[in-house]
Design goal:
Rossmann fold; about 240 residues; seven-stranded parallel beta sheet; alpha/beta; binds nicotinamide-adenine-dinucleotide; about 15% strand
């Protein structure tokens, strides 16, 4: 049976956990060969055991690490059709608690990460005359949620996605961004320990629940597939209506 991603090679950063891991499962189910790149060595070894998944170590904030990984990826698979810049870290620190080192770390993983991803992967897509990039930003890039350095890093992802969409469209490469609300993954585990906070968030959300990794993975699948062949520079908010209020 033809899947929605049959014959596609897809590279997913942060593919070893949370929504990235969900994408790995969905993409392979839809026929893709997946490269799951992550900084978590143990989790990489685990995804590497899955059929049609190549688990590889990558620090998205390191130019050198991207270069090394892409040399191997191209040698093994010849090209990359889909890049999902999903790896990220979070912090709850407010501006007054944030050190310069905190700020720099946040920007280097969440901001440089997608930039380096596009820098190292898009040239191979341009060579093929086609490709799809999906960048995972956050609803905190669009509304004030008090998560300063995190919001700033995700704002960078929002801006660079639009810029890249206009730059690469004529070369056949589409770039879109997704803005998740609160999704239940290991990243939000700590927040979810507070029943009160979860209740508050659920109550404040028009669709009356938190998001699940599949809510994001399904949208990434659409944007990454040829079904979205006329979609570039789009911003898709997936937050149960929270930021529409
Ligand atoms: N969970 C949410 O509520 C939420 C909301 C909005 C946006 N996001 C964003 O979605 C993305 C996925 O988050 P998640 O909730 O699945 O979190 P997660 O913590 O479950 O997964 C993130 C993955 O990224 C990896 N990673 C971290 N730093 C890395 C680095 N330097 N290089 C390579 N890999 C690295 C981690 O090892 C982990 O496997 C992140 O960019 C996050 O900021 C999450």
């Amino acid at each position: 049976m033809m899947g929605r991603l049959t014959n596609k090679v897809a590279l997913i950063t942060g593919g070893a956990s949370g929504m990235g891991r969900e994408m790995v499962d969905l993409f392979t189910k839809e026929g893709a060969q997946v490269i799951a790149a992550d900084i978590n060595e143990k989790a990489v070894a685990k995804v590497n055991e899955l059929d049609n998944v190549y688990g590889t170590l990558l620090d998205v904030s390191s130019d050198e690490s991207w270069k090394k990984m892409m040399d191997t990826v191209i040698e093994k698979f010849g090209r990359v059709d889909i890049l999902v810049n999903n790896a990220g870290i979070s912090t709850e620190k407010q501006i007054n608690d944030t050190t310069l080192a905190d700020w720099q770390l946040m920007l280097s993983v969440n901001g440089f990460g997608p930039f380096l991803g596009m820098k190292h992967v898009v040239p191979y897509m341009v060579e093929e005359g086609k490709g799809a990039v999906v960048n995972i930003s956050s609803f905190t890039a669009q509304i004030g949620m008090g998560l300063n350095a995190y919001s700033a890093s995700k704002g960078a992802v929002r801006a660079i996605s639009k810029a890249a969409a206009t730059q690469y469209g004529r070369m056949g490469v589409r770039v879109n961004a997704i803005f998740p609300g609160i999704i239940e993954t290991p990243m939000t585990q700590k927040l979810e320990e507070s029943k009160e906070l979860v209740n508050q968030m659920v109550k404040a959300t028009p669709l009356q629940r938190l998001g699940q990794p599949a809510d994001i993975a399904n949208a990434v699948l659409y944007l990454a597939s040829d079904e979205a062949s006329y979609v570039t520079g789009a911003e898709l908010v997936i937050d149960g209506g929270y930021s529409a209020q």
